[in-house]
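Not sure how to ask, but would you mind making up any protein sequence you like and the tokens describing how it folds?
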Amino acid sequence: MKSIKTLFVVTIFVLLTSSAAMAEAIKLDLNAVYGATSFHTQGAMDFAKRVEAHSNGSVLITVHPGGSLGFKGPELLKVVKDGQVPMSDILMGVVAGSSHAFGISSLPRLVKSYDEARALYVDSRPLYEKSARRWNQKLLYAAPWPPSGLITKKAIVTRADIKGIKTRTYDKNGAEFLRALGAMPLSMPWGEVYASLRTGMIDSVLTSSESAKNGKFWEVLSHFEPINYAYPLNMVTINLDYWNALSSDQQEAMLKAASETEADQWKASQARSEEALKAIAAEGITVTPESPELTAELDAAAREIQKKFLKKAKKAEKALLNTYVK
């Protein structure tokens, strides 16, 4: 009888403490700009699972894919700053107009491999963290899209082939780079790109092989040039007021989850890039490496954009970039 009574008391204690823990759980929404199949959104979902596990269920994050909360563009820094949504993933280049340092990761041809991109990120992270703090948020982790290339209706062999093409770009740096090469860059929401290719409003896209695969661009385009334009970073941030409301243990759990997710996402980016190149080639896209002539022309155009960026850069940005700009 005594053992049964003890078991009953222990069971009630466990139920009560579990209920209390559940009642005290902090629930956060994470705005994800890209669809559920995007590896960045999948990374955010993995992050949410890790946070729940590391915090023993005391922090629960719900990821909302595809911009379903209504937040998608340059306003994202302000949206998180004002607490309209506690957390969001943000393509850095898209918000570079709000904080100059966020434009570093999408500078054209500054780095040309994952190793170089990773080194640039490590060196730049203090600048990114400072910029995030100015916007009342904490940078949790960041990872790159696969390197941006040009997907087009015709082969791009020299600069002359770029002249006049109507290209969708994802940020100001890309627009200036393509304009310098003679293209006609346009900005538009990702959801409008496929239809615009169908109607002829645009005839090319500056994007990754991963996005070309997800967009089924082989149905409307025929060539991909992996020009290693940039390895643009997608970051996940949290509003500082929400962050400061977490206990130290909860913050530690979130940082641990962020570190693990970041490491996995960098690996996933490279793997997805290689897989996507094979996938689009299998669907009929011709993947054309740069010609030596095109390499020289792209690098020359990129240097002009880099110099222009440096003129507006603050002291810390200049000190960093001068070690990368050739």
Observations:
- The first helix runs from residue 2 to 23.
- Confidence is low (pLDDT under 50) at residues 1-23.
- Residues 165 and 183 are 5 Å apart (CA to CA).
- The radius of gyration is 22 Å.
